[in-house]
Amino acid sequence: MSRPLLLNAFDMMVPVHQSPGLWRHPEAGVARFDTLEYWTSLARTLEDGGFASLFLADIPGVYDVYGGGTEATARGGVQYPLLDPLVAVPAMAAATERLGFGVTASVTYEAPYLLARTFATLDHFTRGRVAWNVVTSYQDSAARNLGMDRQIPHDERYDRADEYMEVMYKLLEGSFEPGAVPADPATGVFVDPDLAHPVGHEGTWFSVPGHALTHPGPQGTPLLFQAGASKRGQQFAVDHAEAIFFIGNTPQLVRRWTDGVRAGLAERGRAEDAVKTFTMATVVVAETDAEAQARLAGYRRHVDIEGALSLFGGWTGVDLAGADPDAPLEYVATDANQSALAAFTSLSPDRTWTVRDLAEFVAIGGRGPVIAGAPGTVADELERWREEAGVDGFNISAAVRPADLERFTTMVSPELRRRGLLPEPGSVPAGQTLREVLTGAGPRLADDHRGASFRR
Amino acid sequence: MSRPLLLNAFDMMVPVHQSPGLWRHPEAGVARFDTLEYWTSLARTLEDGGFASLFLADIPGVYDVYGGGTEATARGGVQYPLLDPLVAVPAMAAATERLGFGVTASVTYEAPYLLARTFATLDHFTRGRVAWNVVTSYQDSAARNLGMDRQIPHDERYDRADEYMEVMYKLLEGSFEPGAVPADPATGVFVDPDLAHPVGHEGTWFSVPGHALTHPGPQGTPLLFQAGASKRGQQFAVDHAEAIFFIGNTPQLVRRWTDGVRAGLAERGRAEDAVKTFTMATVVVAETDAEAQARLAGYRRHVDIEGALSLFGGWTGVDLAGADPDAPLEYVATDANQSALAAFTSLSPDRTWTVRDLAEFVAIGGRGPVIAGAPGTVADELERWREEAGVDGFNISAAVRPADLERFTTMVSPELRRRGLLPEPGSVPAGQTLREVLTGAGPRLADDHRGASFRR
Fold first, then answer.
1. Region annotation Disordered: residue ranges (chains A, B) (predicted)?
2. pLDDT-based confidence at residue A9 (cuts at 50, 70, 90)
């Protein structure tokens, strides 16, 4: 087989993840997102389609920038209502044998002592198929509802996150040595006290003196995912992550980021391929290129402009409520918002962008590419992106959910298999951990990973 | 059918819940407690046996009183390692159709904004089969690992817990009105902004201004369980609980408590039967009374004395390490510990209690009765207890796990069904919420419940 293409589905337990309005498409089934069956069925589909994992975003707040409120967010179901992804993982694992589950959890709002237990439990119950997407959270609205006046300042959040990771490593790597849980009726020893240790953490932000509540699962620390795009976030990623996710609209933009990551890894003394790199792609597939383009044009008719601007507002802090949808963006740009707008419009600097253009752009594809075409065209584009952007794989996003992911698995996956880019069904043995599937090593953290230094 | 007997299984995601040493019994299977299959299989067993729910205890700490450390706790697997029960619930729900799941979560260590989302998600994913056992937590070791120097003082914990409940009610009852989530493609409205409200909570302990992250499941607030035994705890229970759990070794002791609860309910203007009452029983069943007694005697040979004293230390704060196991307890009693000892020894004041006697007493049955006998004897005893103690049902505890619960379902459940005390298999329609099954009303909180006043 050629170097395999790694695929995660990029999703969220919400009516609208990245495509405001598309839940109204006749083929959409996502109004049932609040049933367990929706997610176990999706998990089975993805496993059959050769996906490595289902990657679930999460934010502990409700977007309230657009119009200074939540009306457009509510009406459009824009990442609201938002279910707790952690509790769905074991049920999805029970419905599958190989698929991994990447779950977002914030180091800002969960106590490390309890979060370490939750991830260890998930690693046991999935037999090593869980990843943690480490985020520091970015919404003032979340901070206010979680007992803070406002967010912790950005760089300080990451300093605190570094210490948080240290606590997690101590709990997941250092508290139970290998062999600490003989559970042997003959000797009567369930946990060997000589191999189970209090972590004794006393730091700037956290004090955790005691023993981890539970022994780690097959992976120890779950596979670590990170998506920080800022300079400090990227530094955090090269220090901790095993897989990184970055969204960009051109392969060149993503390539600048992957090059930066590899340089950062070299600086830190980690191997250049110590981290798997992913970028996002929204795929619209049909039998022919023309049909796919027609399908995409149909999608655009379902876009919810206000919902898209609510999402845009949440991402950028820029409130475009009240702006004429057909006004050119240059007339609504202010000193405060022009850099946020430019991040989008600079991708096609020659055209005149209206507010509506921006919303449609956000609503289909978000900040990443839209690949629309026949299966062969989609596979060509994914291969081209992989080469030009220098990534190991993709977080595949669906505009119409879950239909676009189902279509991917029945139309694109077979084509990728023909090209030797995806494993044949049944060729991946069950029982591998997600770390082994994604990195080719494991099941525990690599010896040169920072977390490994907390082993005894 | 006679007034049905309500049964919950009382368990915990640990090697040893209440019976130190019994994991070494040849019929025990609990060394596999860290696999999901252990729990989904147990759930199916309980459902087949007519249990209303699986009630899962939890403590966010490791017992460290005995010998001033965790050695005996570790060796004996005494509520350690301890998995996260919340994440197992949807998988167990997917394996069953009717069984409820009561999960313990502490109001001391989880942010209400996030815990409300977790329980709402569980209520969606179980279709209304989740209960919340509200605890305030009692271990200094937990407090230290969760960023506090020590516990919040007892009565203050309950004042804070009252406000916590208010925040939960606002999030689960007040933020989304009925009909707030039309999810209607025709109108394009997923959430009706006029029916979704910020909760605007600003109190002594909590500030939660915003909208609940998700809409509530079929029950709204999950069924509320509580087990506070102190005077302030009992006051909290009559204010909030719909089901209460109390452990006592004699029906008379439990009757004093149920009478107290009913008086408290009357004082608060709630119906005397507004709260279902449960007490714990450990059941050892066999074909004949003699075989059951022989089985029980065999269990005693597996008791882990140090493990039992570690559990006793965790419950009472009394450290009996170093005491001669065969010394009469009166010689190890000090001013500080004699009331804790008396709580146990006063049940049989005429015999001389040794440290070993106490440990064996703790290890089989804990603080509740052990009912050992043929199916008819067990059923008689459960009926007698129900009458004399004035309870609605039992939290059934197993010494040998999961074997004793399996034996209960195959031997005692048929006998209870013959007596019309348990519903016949298949006679309970699927699709009922746990609130409906346990209280006969619902699916939402009763209108005279405090939580209902936070609806709009």
1. 419-456
2. very high
Residues facing residue B280 across a β-bridge: B395
Task: Point out the least confidently predicted range of A163-167, A268-272, A306-310, A387-391.
Answer: A268-272
| Among A31, A86, A215, beta carbon nearest to B183 | A31
B193/A61 Cβ within 8 A: no
E strands within A233-342? Answer: 243-246, 276-285
pLDDT tens digit sequence for A331-367: 776 766 777 777 777 767 778 889 999 999 899 988 8
∠ CA A175-A181-A186, nearest 5°, is 150
Interface of B with A in 380-399 (CB under 8 A): none
ipTM of predicted complex:
0.96
Domains, chain A, in order of start with CATH, read: 6-303+364-449 (3.20.20.30)
State the pTM of this model: 0.96
Q: 3-state SS string over A163-232?
A: HHHHHHHHHHHHCECCCCCCCECCCCECCCHHHECECCEECCCCEECCECCCCCCCCCCCEEEECCCCHH
| Terminal CA-CA length for chain B | 39
Do the annotations mark residue A158 as ligand-binding? Answer: yes
DSSP letter for A31, please.
G
A residues 331-360 closer than 8 Å to B (CB) = none
Distance between B385 CA and the closest CA of chain A, angstroms? 35
Pairwise CA distance, residues A102 & A225, whole Å: 8
Are B296 and B315 within 8 A, CB to CB? no
Average pLDDT score over chain A: 92
Judged on CB neighbours under 10 Å (0-12, 13-18, 19+), A179 is: exposed
Determine contact, residues B428/B422, Cβ cutoff 8 Å: no
Phi, psi (degrees; rounded to nearest 5) at A309: -75, -25
What is the rounded CA–CA span in Å between residue A440 and residue A435?
7
**pLDDT for residue B332:** 74
Whether B120 has its CB under 8 Å from any CB of chain A: the answer is yes
Distance, in Å, from the CA atom of A196 to the CA atom of A236, rounded to the nearest integer, reads 29
**Hey, is the C-beta of B84 within 8 angstroms of any chain A C-beta?**
yes
State which amino acid sits at residue B39. Answer: W
* A400-428: average pLDDT: 94
Interacting residues of B217 by C-beta distance below 8 A, sequence separation 6+: A34, B120, B121, B122, B123, B124, B125, B126, B127, B128, B130
- Answer whether B398's CB lies under 8 Å from B295's CB: no
Q: Exposure string (b/e) for B310-348, b if CB count within 10 Å is 16 or more?
A: bbbbbbbebbbeebeeeeebeebbeeebeebbeebbebe
Q: What residues are paired with A372 via a beta bridge? A: A284
Strand stretches in A362-435, DSSP E: 370-373, 393-397
CB contact under 8 A, A109 and B109: no
Binned at pLDDT 50, 70 and 90, residue B142 comes out as confident
Amino acid at B17: H
**Is residue A29 classed exposed, middle or buried when 0-12, 13-18 and 19+ CB atoms within 10 A define those classes?**
middle
Identify whether the C-beta of residue B397 lies closer than 8 Å to the C-beta of residue B282.
yes
Q: Which residues contact A406 (CB under 8 A, 6 or more apart)?
A: A45
Neighbours of B8 (CB within 10 A): 28
Q: Does A35 touch chain B if contact means CB atoms closer than 8 Å? A: yes
Chain B residues touching A24 at Cβ < 8 A: 185, 188
Query: What is the overall mean pLDDT for chain B?
Result: 92
